[in-house]
Specification:
heterodimer; A: 269 residues; alpha+beta; Enolase-like, domain 1; 4-stranded antiparallel β-sheet; 11 helices; 23% strand; B: alpha+beta; DNA polymerase, domain 1; 2 domains; 5 strands; 34% helix; globular
Chain lengths: 269, 157
């Protein structure tokens, strides 16, 4: 194994390849290093650009190296606070980055679930233009990894803070891994949902959108009947995994109930 | 494997040693520097036994590359006592907060950062602060009591 450090992300991006893995906070990559199962090249960068938090027109630009603790400490990022708090314990939150979370394997990656529901876009190092996070996650699901580096993430701020909600279901509190996590962004116009986005974590190889749920919610008001229909279709099109925390059957069985509780919380405002 | 020098502050004193490429901070502190207070529990960031403080924040030494502390300040449990036991160490003894003792150094580090930032924590604050530290003897109650007692003792009357 070789460790390569680069001054800038652009240089690091050029050094990537199928035999390399990019290490950010280290909470996932170092596990493999310790176990002797890591990629043969570890690529790192201390580029300060990775640590920026900047307000943009309709949201924020966040460097991929921003940690969960930095998100929690930033007052204007309060809508992401409960999401960051759900990741690991204090030590992990001081180390784990939002960029790394996008590539965290099952059952990790709860922060990326929220980013997906918020319609976040990612800037890749050495490339122009932002790409929908959904595309990056889909590609990761297909290929099992990536040889690209996320430099920054653009997160729109929900116009109405009550339009966004997140829940993580775990067996151990306050620190436990996900049986599942759910994020919902349901902007309303005149009481009707316009642009529903609902995402599940730990219900597939990567965070995934629940398209059937979104179709049910679109154009509706959040009432009991709509919530019941959405809950019924919670796992439509999803193929949840079995692991040490829960079986696929259990995840399927309880997903509707957890989605229902989240939507009821949003309906109460 | 390539080695490189790492110079850093450990518990207030400058230390330097060579670290092999890819070596984690826990092994570096234990084998390279000889500070045996951070413990190896899981090697994957689950147990918190290797918790150290880097520039004021708790980190997991097993998931940190040794060279990441170059030029930085590292605190471990071995630096807590200063001639006499640290108030947290006194309280841990007083409240029988160490059973087998393996999680204790990590618990002390998490507790220290909590009390440095929040001199009057609630029980919930303490539980949240040690959420990343597992005690396999499950002696959490005495540990929480010891940390709360330290906070009470420190508070001006």
């Amino acid at each position: 194994m070789r460790v390569e450090s680069y001054g800038t992300l652009a240089e690091a991006a050029r050094a990537m390849g199928s035999d390399a893995v990019f290490m950010a906070g280290g909470t996932l990559v170092m596990r493999d290093v310790n176990a002797g199962t890591s990629a043969s090249r570890i690529v790192r960068s201390a580029d300060p650009a990775m640590r920026h938090i900047r307000a943009t027109g309709d949201g924020f630009s966040l460097g991929s190296g921003v940690t969960m603790a930095q998100i929690l400490a930033h007052r204007e990022l309060d809508f992401l606070g409960p999401v960051a708090r759900s990741v690991g314990g204090p030590q992990v939150r001081n180390m784990a980055t939002i960029g790394g979370n996008i590539f965290a394997h099952h059952p990790y990656g709860d922060f990326a679930v929220a980013l997906l529901a918020l319609g976040a876009r990612a800037l890749l190092a050495g490339q122009g233009g932002a790409k929908p996070l959904e595309d990056i996650l889909r590609e990761r699901g297909r290929t099992g990894g990536t040889s690209q580096i996320v430099a920054a993430i653009e997160v729109p701020r929900p116009r109405d803070p009550r339009a966004f909600a997140f829940a993580k279901v775990s067996r151990i509190k306050p620190k436990g891994v996900s049986v599942m996590s759910i994020a919902a962004h349901l902007p309303r116009e005149g009481g009707r949902i316009r642009g529903a986005c609902v995402a599940f974590g730990a219900m597939g190889p990567t965070p995934l959108r629940a398209s059937a749920v979104e179709r049910v919610l679109e154009g509706q008001s959040i009432d009991a009947a709509t919530i019941a229909r959405a809950a019924q279709l919670a796992t439509d099109g999803l193929d949840p995994p079995t692991d040490g925390l829960a079986s696929a059957w259990y995840r399927r069985e309880v997903a509707g109930t957890h989605l229902k509780r989240l939507l009821e919380r949003m309906a109460r405002g | 494997m390539a080695k490189k020098p790492v110079t850093f502050m450990l518990n207030g004193s400058e230390r330097a040693a060579f670290a092999e490429e890819g070596l984690n901070l826990l092994e570096f502190l234990r084998r390279g520097i000889g500070d045996l207070s951070p413990k190896y529990g899981c090697g994957q960031g689950t147990c918190g036994a290797c918790t150290v403080i880097i520039d004021g924040d708790t980190h997991l030494a097993c998931l940190t590359m040794a060279d990441a502390v170059q030029g930085r300040k590292v605190e471990t449990a071995s630096g807590l006592a200063n001639g006499k036991a640290h108030p947290l160490q006194e309280a841990f003894m007083e409240h029988f907060a160490a059973q087998c003792g393996y999680c204790t150094p990590g618990m002390l580090m998490s507790a220290k950062v909590l009390l440095d930032r929040n001199p009057s924590p609630t029980r919930t604050d303490v539980i949240e602060a040690i959420a990343g530290n597992l005690c396999r003897c499950t002696g959490y109650e005495p540990i929480i009591d010891a940390i709360l007692a330290t906070a009470t003792l420190r508070r001006p009357a």
